[in-house]
C-alpha cells in the first residue's frame, strides 16, 4: 500500500508568504490574502503560526540558517582571505537575487508596519554577517602574513554595505536590477583596491 506524503503546511505557508512578498511588492500582506493563496482558512494559518509576526520570524530563521551555514562552509573549505570574502559577498548577492520576496525582508522593506522585533532580528543578522567578514579579514595577518592599511572592522562594514546597497537597488527597481549585475567587474575593482599588497 503506497503512502502519500502529507503536505508540510508550515512550509507551504512560508513559501506562499515569500512569493507574495515578491508579487505584491509595496503592499502589506494580509492574513486573509495569505490564507487564500495557500488555500486554507485564516484559522488554519493560525493553527500553524500564532501571528503574522511568527510567519515572518519563520522566514528570518530560514534566511539566517541558510546564510550562516553556507558562510561556515566557505570558511571551512577556503583558507585564503580574498577568496573567502569574494565567496561570502557573492553568496549574499545570489541569495538575494534568487529569493526576491525574502530580499524585501533583508532590506527591511517588507517589515514596515510590522512588529519592531522583526527589524531587530534583521539588524542582528547583519551584525553576525559583519562579524563573519571581520573575522575573515583579521585572520589574513595570521594566515598570510599580510595586513590591511585600514581597520578590519571598518572594511567589513564597507563590504557588507556594498551588498546591502545592491539588495536595495534590486528591491527599488522592482527586481529588475539584479544584485549580481556588474559584480565581476566590481569585485575586480575591490580586489585591486583591497588586496593589492
TrEMBL record:
User: What is its subcellular localisation?
Assistant: Cytoplasm, Nucleoid
- Does the keyword Repeat feature in the UniProt annotation? no
Q: Which InterPro entries match?
A: Homeodomain-like_sf (IPR009057), HTH-type_Tx_Regulator (IPR050624), HTH_TetR (IPR001647), NO_SlmA (IPR023769), SlmA-like_C (IPR054580), Tet_transcr_reg_TetR-rel_C_sf (IPR036271)
UniProt key word Transcription regulation: no
Q: Which residues form the HTH tetR-type domain?
A: 7-67
Name the DNA-binding segment ranges. Answer: 30-49
Ordered alphabetically, the record's keywords are: Cell cycle, Cell division, Cytoplasm, DNA-binding
Q: From what superkingdom does this record's organism come?
A: Bacteria
**MF (Gene Ontology):** sequence-specific DNA binding
State the Gene Ontology BP annotations: cell division; negative regulation of division septum assembly
GO CC list: bacterial nucleoid; cytoplasm
Protein family according to the UniProt entry: Belongs to the nucleoid occlusion factor SlmA family.
* Quaternary structure and partners: Homodimer. Interacts with FtsZ.
Role, per record: Required for nucleoid occlusion (NO) phenomenon, which prevents Z-ring formation and cell division over the nucleoid. Acts as a DNA-associated cell division inhibitor that binds simultaneously chromosomal DNA and FtsZ, and disrupts the assembly of FtsZ polymers. SlmA-DNA-binding sequences (SBS) are dispersed on non-Ter regions of the chromosome, preventing FtsZ polymerization at these regions.
Q: What is this protein called?
A: Nucleoid occlusion factor SlmA
Which species does the entry assign this protein to? Rheinheimera tangshanensis
- Gene that produces this protein: slmA
